[in-house]
Amino acid sequence: MKTLFLVIALATISHCQNRPPQRKCCRVQSQFKKFGPGIEGNPVAVNVGSCPELCPGVSTATITDGTIDYFVGPEPASLGPYLIHSLLLDQRLLVGFDTFSHKYDRFAHTVRLPPNCRSLARMSVKICLNASESNTEYGDALIFEDPLKQESLYEVTLVKLFDGYWRWMSSGCKTINFGPSDKVFQYAVRNNYYHVIVRDEVGVDYIQTTLSYESQQKCIPSLWTPVDVPLATGIEKVDKIIGCKCQQKGDSRCLRQPKKVVFYKDSKFEKTIDVGYCNGSCRQVPHVPLPTDDVRNATIDQDKENGSASGQPQVFPVPASDPQQPQAFPVPALDPPQLTCQPVSIDRVNLRGPHGLETVEVVKQCECKPQCYRMPYFKQVVGVSKKKPNGILSAEKRTFDVGKCVGTCDRAVHSDVTNLGNQDCSDKCSPRGYEYARLLKRDGSYVSVPLITTCDCKRI
């Protein structure tokens, strides 16, 4: 029994390892990242792990035009956009499925594909044909065409398609494969349909299209564990990926994503917490100014009976040579701040470990924020309050939003003119403005609690 299990396990591992690079298994792979300097002054390399980009698996869909009945018909064909204007069909009698055409007649049909062909990886077309009794064989051909450009995307004679065995009364089915580099594939992806023309004196039983789509799943980290990295400045905790999973490709907006971290792994204090992280796109829609720089006035005709607006706007342009109009000087547009997906709300969880209690921050909400921004951060401060009417002082805990500066700083955007020559300094997201809250102490004095109001990048 153990031998059988070992054979199955080795076969599974071999199958996983022998897949091509784009079909990697969704499992943790080694990836080393340097931190430093270390205690000896050299960078410390740590295996933080990684997950491959793609998950294995390809979905397929099959579309059949015409009935697979070996020419029991006839059945009508369907002509899509612009196909009727094809020069190949000029003054020709068009026939549908299961019909044997006469001399110079043509079969023409448009195969319509399902929407969202952007993730299409491969496409194969199977067509079943039969030559008539009067077939002359030499002019017979299968053509995939772009009728708008009057361009043949793919054309092959039936003699060549059937390896020289195409004669009168011949019949057979052939499958043609198209990949991303083929014109037929590109045309189908762009338009969600493609056109087929068959000439001459040839009947078509059916056309079967098989679509192979790339996997709609991505391999993402599913489990982390903190690793202590000894550096010259002290111990730094680094999250190491220890698990991967396949997940459906979803929305690219800025959202909170789950991040399960195993703390104190392989000890009696082991505990898994979803600390979360922020991920997603913060791409802004570019502002396109309307072409109304020379517009002086615009009115909309009003309907006098019901008072509703109707008609088209009447725009009166200002001539460029009008001397009475003030000249407008262009104002340079300021670049919008670069936004990144950042946490805007966090919580704290106390975790008991071998060295006592440890506080772990948990991301609760994410939004698109500038690179350096103020995040709410609450802190409890112990003071006293004077109670009425006896005036006795008692202890009181008050919670203040002291704020926290988070994010990164881009030196090219945020520069400090006093430190331009110091290339060893880096930019740090730091408090720029404060407010102060007063809290009464037992001795009757007051303590000031600084509350961060704004954050900016500073050189350190």
Query: How many domains comprise the coordinates?
Result: 3
- Give the integer mean of the pLDDT values: 75
Helix content: under 10%
Task: Indicate the structural class.
Answer: mainly beta
CATH architecture of the largest domain, by name, is: Sandwich
Which key features would you list for this structure?
single chain, 460 residues, mainly beta, Jelly Rolls, 3 domains, five-stranded mixed beta sheet, four-stranded antiparallel beta sheet, 27 strands, elongated, disordered N terminus
Task: Note down, in words, how this protein is organized.
Helices cover 6% and strands 46% of the residues. It folds into three domains: 87 residues, no CATH class; 155 residues, Sandwich (Jelly Rolls); 83 residues. It is built from three helices and 27 strands. The N terminus is likely disordered. The protein is mainly beta. It is elongated, with a radius of gyration of 36 Å. It has a five-stranded mixed β-sheet. Strands 3-11-6-9 form a four-stranded antiparallel β-sheet. It has a two-stranded antiparallel ribbon with strand order 1-2.
